[in-house]
Amino acid sequence: MSQYPPPGNYGEYPAPPPGGYPPPGGQPPQQYWQESPKGKGLAVTALVLGILAVLLDFTIILTIVGVFFGLLAAIFGLIAMLKARRGTAGGFGMAVAGLILGVLSLIGGIVIGIFVWIVFKDNGGDDLVDCISKAGGDQTKVQQCQDQFRDNLENKLSITLTPAPTP
After folding, report:
1. Cα separation of 17 and 77, whole Å?
2. What is the CA radius of gyration of the chain?
């Protein structure tokens, strides 16, 4: 004999609804109201580009690439911030960090560029450019211009520049 009452004989209690009981308070099950995660792709991109831009600014040779990455980081960071504010994307903090790093990289790259340009001009860079333009594509004259510029730098700054090995 079963310990449960026969079907349909529940006394004064109604029969349970089919499929189990609903959650308390009339709330729909969690799978229906849970929001899908918001995309953070632009914010992550802005942050990564901002970090790379700042790091590349410290290498004088790659400062131009750093400035370009900084510009992209600032643009992506601004777009990601606007999307996060509207609620269509996530990652507001990463977007702000990417924007700040991008702007810092732009400022740093411009300052480094101005500094390098001033040092170049103060140490005979204009003469080198004039000499190369007058050489007219003659490789021997261009090499003489470069050698003269290197000699002027070595004498003026009291340093010895090691020439790059020739293949």
Report:
1. 51
2. 34
